[in-house]
Amino acid sequence: MSQKCIRAYVTGHVQGVGFRYQTAHEAIKLSLTGYAKNLPDGRVEVLACGRNESVDALMAWLDKGPPTAGVDQVDKEDVEWRAVDGFAIL
């Protein structure tokens, strides 16, 4: 079972619409660890670590986000694997 971590930066109408909470809900369903965090520039940063298929599924979900959000762009980068406890909303 192969694992990875990806950091994503989500741009659009993604703050004040429950984006971090919905992201955490999706990540927990997929057994991922990491976090979702609002950034001062209006983006949301998401770190997702876990099985390749699960991380890919969350990244696909981020492209549209929850119905309350308006996702314009998602920039993704692979980051070094790290063990993270749970999925946090920061």
Explain what this protein looks like in three dimensions.
The protein is of the alpha+beta class and 90 residues long. 24% of the residues lie in helices and 42% in strands. It has two helices and five strands, in the order βαββαββ. It has helices at residues 19-29, 52-62, and strands at residues 3-13, 33-38, 44-51, 70-79, 87-89. It has a five-stranded mixed beta sheet with strand order 4-1-3-2-5, covered by helices on one side. Strand 2 and strand 3 (44-51) form a beta hairpin. It is globular. The protein starts with a strand and ends with a strand. The mean pLDDT is 96.
Search tags:
single chain, 90 residues, alpha+beta, 5-stranded mixed β-sheet, 5 strands, 24% helix
SSE map:
Elements: E1 3-13, H1 19-29, E2 33-38, E3 44-51, H2 52-62, E4 70-79, E5 87-89
Parallel strand pairs: 2-5
Antiparallel strand pairs: 1-3, 1-4, 2-3
Major sheet description? 5 strands, mixed
Strand content: 35-45%
Considering DSSP H and I runs of 4 or more, what fraction of the residues is helical?
Answer: 10-25%
The DSSP helix count reads: 2
Provide mean pLDDT, rounded.
96
Main β-sheet, spatial strand arrangement? 4-1-3-2-5
DSSP strand count: 5
Shape designation: globular
Low-confidence stretches: none
The end-to-end span amounts to: 29 Å
Helix and strand element order: EHEEHEE
**Class per helix and strand makeup:** alpha+beta
Cα-atom radius of gyration: 12 Å
